[in-house]
Amino acid sequence: MKKFRYFFLFLATVALLPAWGCESGLEPPPPEPEPVGAIQGTVTYSGNWPPGSQLRQLFFVPLDFKPSTLLEILTEFNQGNLKASEPLSLNVDSDTFFVGDLDNGTYVYNIIANQFGPNLFTDWRPVGVYEENGGIIEILGDTVQISIHVDFSNFPPFPPE
Amino acid sequence: MKKLHFFTLLFLLFCPAITKGFSVFPQSGNAAIEGVVRDAAGEPLPGVHIFISEAGRGAVTGREGTFRIADLPASNYRIRISMVGFETLHQEISLQEGETKRVGFTLSPITLQSGELVVTASRRSQLIGKVSVSMSTVTPEEIRSRNAVSLNQALEHVPGVQILGNSVNIRGSSGFTYGVGSRVLLLVDGVPLMGPDQGGMDFDGLPLTQTRQIEVLKSPGSALYGGGALGGVVNLITNDYAEIPETTLRLIGGLYQPVRFGEWKQNWDGASDYRPFSGLLFGRSQKVTQRFGYWFSGRLQHNEGYLQDNRTRGAEFYSKFGWEFSNSSEFSLYSSVRRNRNQQFLYWNGLADVLRPGQIQTGGNESASGSNEGLSDRITLLPVYTHQINDAIRLTARGRLFGVAFRPIDSEGNVRPSDKHNVGVRYGGELQADIYATEQLFVTAGATFDENYIRADVYIGTDSLTVRNQPEGSLFLQAEMEWTRRLTTTGGIRYDAYQVHTLSTASQISPKFSSSLLLTEQLIARASFGKGFRVPSVAERFFSNSDFFPLESNLGLKPETSTGYEAGLTWLYLLANRFSLKAEITGFWNEYKNLVEPTFFQESGSFRFINLTSARIRGAEMALSLSSVDQRHHLNGAYTHLDAFDKMLNRPLAYRSSHLVQLSGRTGVTPKLELGADFRWSSAPEQVDTDFSLFVPDAELFPAIYVTDLRVRYQITSGNNAVNLNASLLIRNLFDYYYVERPAIFAPPRNAQIVFEARF
């Protein structure tokens, strides 16, 4: 009968195999996300910086929609729904930025915006667009790190495709 | 009209039993033959047919395997000793004038497992292979090797059985019932032992160390046992008295492992500790003389609990003695006393805080607490008197007294005032006649009476009474006919009358019919039909309280009823002369009416038990067991598929798992070392009660259950030593799987225990 003990042990082991493959059971619920998050990033520049008349201000601006006109962006800005970084440094190789208190959500159009003329309401254009991860930033109560490149010799199209 | 025919048939079956039972066998001599028949293991075999063809005389062995055939003329005889499942034996005997010859016979089983005896199916000893309804048994060895100290631990590996908190669920008969009412009847030595007030099972108050066998009947059993046996019967058969005096001591020490998630530990300091539990079990059994024997056992236990406010402490003591006044009459008395001081965890504080009891708002500024503490005392007395009138008739009178007193304890640790105490007593008795009407016809008939008395402030219904009674009485009759050696049929009927409340009485008639057919020596077919019912418990009718949960009474509750059909095949096979194989497949179909379920009522802001629904539970069960002939290696596997459907709400019935799998193995690696493992899986129920989660956060969570237990036992001394000493290590929930066995109560995480056992 001795030889059968191994047979029984083998059968018992095989029978208990499902226990390893099972799901994990109850676990604490994931913590409730903070209602707001932030984007922290680095912007790098290449190409020749435009003359000072066309380089009045640079900001990082995350948008949760893809605008078809500049007016749509300005409307959101006027309604207080738009958040932007502090003004970025000019004539540098790179800079960092931070946008806090961003509502949780999906930001699909994230740009470096350049005021290129004297009119604060109309003279704006994107000079760089966040392109990693399909250009999408998910905010779920956390701080997301990104990087954007601006090529002054090749501006992105507006409105976006 | 059909009922009338059924009664007529039973009466016709019963008539020869009466006439034969009281007749005197032909007087043709003064010699006699008497003796005992045992199986290969030396255990007495009841129900063995002894037949002397030359004299045309016969007898059937009684409970102790004994028989006597008197008034025989001096002659040479050839005696046939036969029993289904055993090889028939023939023996030549020579009797002189006036001689009484004592003989002993040993029958060998045809296959090893068919020799298993059960009593629950027909209220008498039978070979399990001859039983025509689905039954499973739990052996003392299984109880001991798993160190099962409560009934739920002993039953959780029985095919088709699922433990849901404090309910035993046989093939989906019970869902989660909030601890009141049970659709499975608990018996101790055939005597009902349900709580007088809540009508539930007491998993802890049972003498598991002195248990000969636990039998599980998996179909409606009301035709024999009356109310409560709606979904089946669990019968704990206590030990006989040891021929060689035996004392047992078992010391248990164990620890619950802290849960692995910091979120669950942060609100309770105790959650980071290994929480201990311990126990001491003791017992002694002795047959003092040929006519007197006793056993006693006890348990002291302390469990700190793995949940906050869930500590339990208790002491319990059980005893049984038997006195054989003469060859024809005997008396036994089983008794138990028990005291527990338990904290009871009722519901959690949500999935984010599973280890601490919750607090729920029950209206206005009032709130209910998810835990309580109380002191409970229990006493049980079960006297049995048996008188063998002649070779053919045996009378048994059984009494029962089951008392419970509960005293709640306040948050300061003091016993609350006496008006908050609950007292419940259930008492009754029954008279049963077992009649071997002919060699082929066995009849069981009897009458029962039960009464319960409950005094509690929580059972004040709309009639404002504080004392509740629920008397009930019954008559039952069953006839079992062995048409041929291969075909046996059983018909039975039971009439129950019970008081619904103080002014009205109701009744139930529960018939049954079953048949078994030995197709070959290894293959047995069986089919059965039976009805069951359950009278709602006092708690379901009258409970009205918001201390722990908002519940209100419903005096108009009607009994639940069930009708069950099943058919199955059992195959017994001796494999290569080394392994005993038993394979069973069963299909079953049960219809339930007036099922009582707790339901939330918006207008009163509370729950109420109502006759909510009708249901259909059908399915199939497959079980396979393989044992080596030396009994050192065992493998068991079972799969049960359930289709439990609520016909009123047109959706799955709540808290029923569609799939149950149970696997277990035990092997003697060396003569001293034994390894064992158990695995059970039940799929997540498709439907749960969402009303409960209106109050208790995340109470709707009920994931699939995957639990693996592992055990190792080492025999330290044995054989010729005076003390047989062994040590075991048991790890329960080996993979630390987190689950619930009842809503909003976290089931035990991984825990380990060491057990030392001495027998001498």
Question: What would the keywords be for this entry?
Answer:
heterodimer, A: 161 residues, alpha+beta, Immunoglobulin-like, 3-stranded mixed beta sheet, 3-stranded antiparallel beta sheet, B: 760 residues, mainly beta, Maltoporin, Chain A, 22-stranded antiparallel β-barrel, 5-stranded mixed beta sheet, 45 strands, 55% strand, globular, disordered N terminus
Q: How many helices of chain A does DSSP assign?
A: 2
Rough outline of chain A: elongated
Would you count the extended β strands of chain B for me?
45
The tally of domains of chain B stands at 2
- By CATH reckoning, the class of chain A would read Mainly Beta
* Fraction of residues in H or I helices of chain A: 10-25%
Low-confidence stretches of chain B: 1-27
Strand order of the largest sheet of chain A: 3-1-8
Unreliable stretches of chain A: none
CATH topology of chain A: the name is: Immunoglobulin-like
Largest sheet of chain A: 3 strands, mixed
Compute the CA-based radius of gyration of chain B. Answer: 26 Å
Shape of chain B: globular
- Class by helix and strand content of chain B? mainly beta
